[in-house]
Here is the input.
Amino acid sequence: MGILYVICAAVIIFLAFKTNLALGLLACAIVIAYAVYKYIPTFWAVKAQKAFEAGDFKESKRNYKKAMDTGRAKLQIRLNYVYVLMRTGDFEEAENLLNPVIRVSRLKKEEYRNMAKQQRCMIYYKTGRLDEAIEDAEEMFNDGYKNTTMYAMLGFFKLLTNKNLNEVTRFCEEAYEYNDEDRDIRDNLSICYYRQGKYEKAKELSDKIIEESPLFVEAYYHGAQIAEAMGDYQRGLELLEHVKDCRRSHMTTVSEEEVEKLRQRLALRAGKRA
Here is the structure.
């Protein structure tokens, strides 16, 4: 559509200038005004994405808000904005933006509906509605909506329920077979092995995550837990030292309090002052 627009605009401007200068200038002004009107949401969204990649979630949120305020933002921009709102802890606003998308019943929007429901599951979890999160996620998964994010999210939810560990492990192993390079899927399976007492297998996965995702809070925390279980308290302390360099957001699943409690316990066991 973009190339077609450029070609049509060029033809219109060319024909206008062939007629006379004033008409050509008017055609240029109209084309530029239309381009600004049409593409300004994308302009703000691009700025927002750059800010997001730089870790400036507040600036990203401001720019996505400007894109949304035009009233012409595409659904993908809306969903990206929702994700940023989740990062900044604005869960109520995020849910209010998702609900209209989920209510759309047209077939061409089905993928967006699923993406929106997937995001809403995380909002449910972050706002204390884990049962609703699991119910929606399992319904989507059983209906055939399976991707890396769904496997990772549902595996994490299952770990939170503390239900049959062998059953949860089988699911997380299935997820690992689906995508063995995703950090969240690896982390889930590492936790399963840790809880089963299979510390070497848990450490192997944990080390891979730390090596490839050095800004992932959960990787260092869970790695330190594994080190504690293996009696390597010094390594656990060294891993937790990296947490301060990681990016945190409201989507981080390990609190600073949990990290500090583990650090103090490891320091005590290592015979050092916390």
